[in-house]
Specification:
By secondary structure, this protein is an alpha/beta fold. The chain has 14 helices and 19 strands. The strands form 5 sheets. The chain has a 7-stranded mixed β-sheet, sandwiched between helices. A 5-stranded mixed β-sheet has the order 9-8-10-11-12, sandwiched between helices. It has a 3-stranded antiparallel β-sheet with strand order 17-19-18, covered by helices on one side. It is globular, with a radius of gyration of 22 Å.
Amino acid sequence: MGKLFGTDGVRGLANAKLTPELAFKLGRCGAAVLLAHVTEGQPTVLIGRDTRRSGTMLEAALAAGFCSMGVNVVRLGVVPTPTVAWLTRNATVGGTRPAGVRPAVGVMISASHNPSPDNGIKFFDANGFKLPDEIEAEIEALVLADDDTLPRPTGKELGTITDDFSLVEAYVDHVSKLVPEGLEGLRIVVDTGHGAASEIAPFVLRGLGADVKVLHDAPDGDNINDGCGSTHLDILKHEVVTNSFDLGLAFDGDADRLLAVDHAGNEVDGDHLMLICLKHGLSTGRFTSPAVVATVMSNMGFEQALGELGGELVRAKVGDRYVLEEMLKRDVRLGGEQSGHLIFLDDNTTGDGLISALRVLSAIKAAAKPLRDLAAMMTDFPQVLLNVRVASTQGWQDDAEIQREIAAATETLAGAGRILVRASGTEPLIRVMVEGQEAALIHRIAEHLCDVIRQRLTGTPQPA
């Protein structure tokens, strides 16, 4: 990753690291790199945002940057990230084709599951895909250049800013058609995390006939992800169990990921959800191959269960962008992350929490079984994931002592488990994952490795 772009765009503390000045530059430089091939007329960019207080500030600066390069901006307002991706690929602006204009770029302003003071900016190309590393590197080089030598159009060559919230209706129609049988008879609790799904998810689910109770759907700019949503499931679990709902669904701040809770309050993660959807898709003919792309974080139990279905698990680097790259390379139609980023490539070009919810609910209806029973086709291996906060994630791989301890711990597992140590792409954290058959052993190994990393990278002494 570069100095600005991480695994999911540019992210940081709003107005400190991610400033309006930087957003303006990202607009100008993003336009220069992404729209160089547009030769006729003034190109158009779609901009969406989540519910953070800083969203409108960054939106204004970003839009101004695009306009300064002669690009027209259409603001979508508060929408999920996958809505921006789908509309960039499928929408027309200013009328129907050929009169309308297809967006050349989509941009989402969000920090996903991060706390509300953070924010982020991520780009989608005209086909709705996140940018590859090399394109982000080109944008970054222009942003960090000492001098801005980009064009400065004037007069009628300047871009304009308009609002078109009605474009979202096309996305709603698209996702609703994915479940033609409807969702009547299902009682669901939905936690929207005071985020981008606060209006659209309940609207779609109710429109399909589900009985829906909504939690945390009153964003105030500061409460996104605050003790709620896909990173905080306790309230959702309590509501589902206490009031005898069939299941619960939880979205993160920008609604590109989904986690679920069964009727007994058990968490159902992305590995289980992918397996459920794969089995259903194979039975209906929607999937013709049992192959799935997941990440190095996916549980060994997922790989085992997939093998029992005759399938293959392809492991990618952590980050849904890398999952997508492998899916496209291998023509695999289903992929995702344990954390709930699920990509149904025939439905959208990025992780989509609402589409994931609809695919899971469709599988539950078809099977006429509770979520807990469907999730039981996979048995999880014990897995521990711990984080060490550091000043910088750079260079940890070169520390000889850290590498020696990782090697020694791997020998201790004797082939009956896995160790994965990696730097977060979005936060100053070193993540340690240990997986194996003995829970007590993997906990000891994970805590020891964290102690070593903490001592080596922060100077904090290891416990005696």
